[in-house]
Amino acid sequence: MLWTYMGPDAANPPPLPNLEWNLVPQDQVHISVRVQECNWLQALEGEIDSAHAPLLHGRLDAQGTTSAWIQKRDLRPTFECIKQDFGMSIAARRNYDANTLYWRVNQFLLPFYTLVPPLSPFPDLSGHAWVPIDDNHTLCIFFSYHPSEPLPARTRQLFEEGHQGRESGHPSRHAFVKRPATVPFCDYWTRFTRENAFEFDYESQVNTWFSGLPGLWIQDGACQSGIQPIFDRTREHLGSSDTGIAMTRRLLLEAVSAYRDRGIKPAGVTNPDTFMVRAVSLTLPESTSWVDFGRPHMAAKLGADFGYAL
After folding, report:
1. Fewer beta carbons within 10 angstroms: which end of the chain, N or C?
2. Is residue 162 within 8 Å of 142, Cβ to Cβ?
3. Average per-residue pLDDT in the chain?
4. Average pLDDT score over residue span 219-228
5. Are strands 280-285 and 189-190 parallel, antiparallel or unpaired?
6. Own/partner pairs for 176-184, CB < 8 Å, 24+ apart?
7. CB of 225 within 8 A of CB of 37?
């Protein structure tokens, strides 16, 4: 990865952010890059929303791990959001059983990073840097990593090759189409586009997959960019499950206004450790605060395992 400072003070650039996925040994992380044809914020908002996961990524049959996701026990999560120095913690609460709650806490890190919690039986952390190319295109830098162990060879194979013709969380080597060298980021465009309906398959939708789309990241990308590159937000009808999206928009506006009006920069500009954060998935007694229990586990420490049972 190449890091570039594009600000006004070239003689005194800020320190590089300490992002855990960029600091672990190479055998613990997998990174992929692709171009997505929509505005960066539109893509980011799709990832911080965890209400969609058991539906959009779910199956209609009884096969596959997505049919057994814990999230499917309760398809109507309740959201709690907490403003943090790094950005926003977006916690989705679901009923696990009569006395237990399941919490998934996604993280938004200013200005364009998202972190997704681990999910058994896939014990890795993941997320994106949603880097703007222009108003209608985003460079999606996707990372998956284990904080203390090498990624299994089978996991890497699924990321790089897909599975039985379907895509995983990362674009496989079969997903890319070569563009002319005159096209920006010519090596990172995929064959899944609005023009071919992201290779939607009706028979698959009827019999197997809720979405009818051929893989995990394609399901997300199709929803984020399938309507139009910049959605007209005046036509939205936000609900309670959109709490995290609404709060993140407000946080971004506040951060921009604070810098424009008072010269106040976000904490991560001068303190690189601000970004040492993890997303978490917690199964807790109803009386236990996810904030108090989760605080030490949301702090990333190089070489340390998750610290709780997945």
Report:
1. N
2. no
3. 92
4. 92
5. unpaired
6. 176/34, 184/133
7. yes
Instruction: Let me know: does 107 contact 86? Beta carbons within 8 Å.
Output: yes
Using CA atoms of 231, 212, 152, 50 in order, give the dihedral in degrees to the nearest 10.
40
- Taking every pair of Cα atoms in the chain, the longest distance, rounded to a whole number of angstroms, is 60
Burial class (CB in 10 A: 0-12, 13-18, 19+), 133: middle
What span, in angstroms and rounded, lies between the C-alpha atoms of 191 and 179? 11
The 10s digit of each residue's pLDDT in 49-104 is: 888 888 888 888 766 554 455 655 666 788 999 999 999 999 999 988 888 999 99
The sign of the dihedral angle between the CA atoms of 175, 178, 184, 185 is positive
Reported as a pLDDT band with limits 50, 70 and 90, residue 19 is very high
Please state, in angstroms and as integers, the Cα–Cα distance from residue 101 to each residue in 22, 225, 282, 284, 290, following that order: 32, 33, 8, 5, 10
Please tell me the distance from the alpha carbon of residue 155 to that of residue 168, in angstroms, as a whole number: 10
Q: pTM, whole model, 2 decimals?
A: 0.92
Write 132-135 long-range contacts (CB < 8 A, 24+). Answer: 132/39, 132/40, 133/35, 133/184, 133/185, 135/39, 135/229, 135/230
Tokens of 306: 């998750």
